[in-house]
Amino acid sequence: METTTLANRISSLRKSRGLSQEELAERSSISLRTLQRIESGTTQPRGHTLRLLAESLDTSAEDLQAYTSSQDKTFLHIMNLASLAFWLFPLANLLLPWVLWMMKKDTVDGAEQLGRRILTFQLAWSILTYGIVLVFLFSAFTGLPETMPWLGIVAGMLIVVLYLINSVLILLATVRINRGDEQVYWFNRPKISGFSYK
Known about the structure:
- Helices cover 65% and strands 0% of the residues.
- The protein is mainly α.
- The longest helix has 31 residues, at 111-141.
């Protein structure tokens, strides 16, 4: 099921009713410029404007409110901290944040961008970490540890260090989310214009 933003929902309802933007603006007693901003997603209708649009589109205000995004910093924290699940199950650091992201990316402010950043970072970390595990397992089957007995110890220590680094970076990202920083993970683009976790 594809999720839809409020802007997309209003636009699709308008089009399905055969109305132009001018006709809907006139019918709902709001300015054309306001409707254009709503449909472009730069502003969200609230209260009276939302009710006027709902009436003009022959739907309920509650139906439209289901598509409005909300500010839920707690959800952003949970989505980020869900990455710590790699301690319990390999690749859960990707699976749990992805499920949460898919559920709320269009309804919670900042979830779309933060989810992408979390998944990008965790994917890179997983490729590195589990790549090392695969190389070690491959070398174990080829007899390399017999010639270099320290290889298993080094690989094990490296994995532990990578697990600890990932945990620290996840916790630091949570602090940054709480502060409202836009650059949550160090490798991501420094700024998304007009966006904030605040």
